[in-house]
C-alpha cells in the first residue's frame, strides 16, 4: 500500500511540475511582460502564428506577441502587396533597443508569414522599410530560423552585441550605421 501511495505521489508531483505549472505560468502577467523586450522574448510565444497566407487579424495578433507589444502597435496589412505598416507611438526606449526590436520583429514576421514581402515601421515619425529579401539574405540558415537552436545562434544571441545590431539594422533598412 505504501509503495502505491509513493508512486501516486511521485506521478502527481511530476505532473504538477512539468505540465500544470508551465501552462499556468504562460498565462501569468509576468510571462506576458517578459515577452515585451527582445532579450526576454520566447520563440514559443509566436510559433502559433506560422502561416502561408497572412490576414489582417493574424498580423495584428502576431504583433501583440512580439517585443514592444506594450506600445500597442497599429498594424495595417496590404494583403495584395504582401506588405505591413506597423506604427508605434510614444516609444520611450533608447535607439539601440528600437533598432534591436526592428531587426528581431522583422525577422520573426518574415519567418512566420510566408507571403509577407515588406514591412514599413513608423517609429514615432521615423519611417524605415524592411524587405523580405534583405532579411532572408542576412542569415546563414534563415529557412530554419524558427528552430530553437538556429533562432538562438543566428538571431537572439547576436542581438546582445551593439555592433551587430547597428550593422544588421543598417543592412535591413538600407541605412548607414550611425557612429
Describe the structure in your own words.
- The protein is elongated.
- Strands 1-2-3-4 form a four-stranded mixed β-sheet.
- Helix 4 packs across helix 7 (162-173).
- By secondary structure, the protein is an alpha+beta fold.
- The protein starts with a helix and ends in a 6-residue tail after the last helix.
- 46% of the residues lie in helices and 13% in strands.
- The protein has seven helices and four strands, in the order H-H-H-E-E-H-E-E-H-H-H.
- It has helices at 2-25, 29-34, 56-63, 95-112, 132-136, 148-156, 162-173, and strands at 74-78, 83-88, 118-123, 126-131.
The gist of it:
The protein is of the alpha+beta class and 179 residues long.
Which key phrases capture this entry?
179 residues; alpha+beta; four-stranded mixed sheet; 7 helices
Topology, please?
Elements: H1 2-25, H2 29-34, H3 56-63, E1 74-78, E2 83-88, H4 95-112, E3 118-123, E4 126-131, H5 132-136, H6 148-156, H7 162-173
Parallel strand pairs: 2-3
Antiparallel strand pairs: 1-2, 3-4
- SSE succession: HHHEEHEEHHH
Helix content: 40-55%
Taking the alpha carbons of the first and last residues, their distance comes to: 72 Å
So how many helices? 7
Average pLDDT confidence is 87
Large-scale geometry? elongated
- Beta content comes to 5-15%
Radius of gyration from the alpha-carbon trace, in angstroms: 19 Å
Instruction: Report on the biggest sheet.
Output: 4 strands, mixed
The total beta strand count reads 4
Structural class determined from secondary elements: alpha+beta
Biggest sheet strand line-up: 1-2-3-4
Which spans have pLDDT < 50 for at least 5 consecutive residues?
A: 24-32
